[in-house]
Amino acid sequence: MIIDSIPLVLKRFSDVEFHFVGDGPELENLKAQAERLGVSNKVVFHGRRPDAPTLLTEADIFALTSKAEGHSRAVLEAMQCSLPVVATRLGGFVDEVIEGENGYLVELGDVGALAQSFLKLLGDAELRMKMGRAGRCRVEEFFTLEKFYSRQLQLYKDLLARER
Predict the structure, then answer these.
(1) Cα–Cα distance between 92 and 27 in angstroms, integer?
(2) Domain CATH code at residue 54
């Protein structure tokens, strides 16, 4: 989905590069798709990288367009690095990304909406910074280990109280 959006983005921002981190069964298909669309010169495939989170410090936007996903550590790491997030509207993403506040959610398969989200963010550095800060605040407020364990403990207490 991201690769399909690249030609649309390049019409307005020809100097943009898209970096993909990770391997997996679709990697070769993604490379072939980039070639087919004539955008392979604007795409960097890093493969599996143990230092993937450090690459976030060089990014302007983080995108993850999974077909199925629970909560995503990658999305939370991007938010922790103050990056706006563009993700598919499913699974844990809807808890992590608040539409228009710290990023954008797009429907699976809606390449036009994905490209529009990229274009909005690429065209407005202040918006990227604002959304990035909001994402970092969201992680600190809701997704730290302390918050997670506190919510889990409260859940157990509530369940035990109901049994009595």
Answers:
(1) 24
(2) 3.40.50.2000
Q: What angle do CA 151, 160, 152 make, to 5 degrees?
A: 15
CA-to-CA dists, residue 48 to 23, 57, 159, angstroms: 5, 17, 41
> What pLDDT digit, counting tens, does each position of 57-95 carry?
999 999 999 877 667 889 999 999 999 999 999 988 888
Q: Which residue range forms the structural domain that includes residue 142?
A: 2-163
The residue type at 41: N
Look at residue 47 and give its three-state secondary structure. Answer: strand
Q: Give the total number of structural domains in the chain.
A: 1
Q: In terms of Cα–Cα distance, which of 15, 116, 11, 18 is closest to 63?
A: 18
